[in-house]
Specification:
Layout lengths: L9 E5 L5 E6 H9 L3 E7 L2 E5 L1 H14 L6 E3 L4 E3 L3 E4 L14 H7 L16 E5 L14 E5 H7 L22 H7 L8 H4 L7 E2 L1
Parallel strand pairs: 1-7, 2-10
Antiparallel strand pairs: 1-2, 3-4, 3-7, 5-6, 8-9
Amino acid sequence: MEGCSGLDANVLVLNRHYMAIRVVGARRAFSLLFRQLAEVVAEEDGTYANYNFQSWCEVSQFKRQFEPDTYDWVATVNFYIAVPKVIRLLFYDRLPANEVKFNRRNIFARDENRCQYCGRRFPTKELSIDHVIPRSMGGQSVWENVVCACVSCNAKKGGQTPEQAHMTLIRRPTRPKRNPLIHVHLGHQRYRSWKQFLDHAYWSVELT
């Protein structure tokens, strides 16, 4: 497949019992479909239809003609194929882990890329992770003690507590009950079809 922005799209992955387990990129999704390890689950008029790789290629030609704005697209040498929004693994039964992973990506998503001191939003590359109680004072690297901070606020706070630096947190950090990245994706029209599956699944779905 030739390079195309459609390959940057995200795809929700269900286990064999239609429970959401993770989110993968389009490249990984197409690899699973092509190797017959998964099938497409597509919403059509309020119901869901299942397609293998070959039939999805055929259906894509119809969707390209009548629903071009509904999907992201990938160009092959001979035709376009729609990036599925949801796929189902045919031989995988395991359930997702019932805990949101503690990592930089999820911290930024929880805080919505907003500095928790000045309240302004920044690109990820312009944010850092701040320990509310500094590690030099025994502060731990846990959900309840880390926040997003812009470079300026982080430098101002330094190795102090917010009180010592005369700064105020706009929101006390907490451990999220739902995966914050999934919540972000649900706000995008392209990923609305995920909601039905996520309403009945753990919200700790992993992004890989």
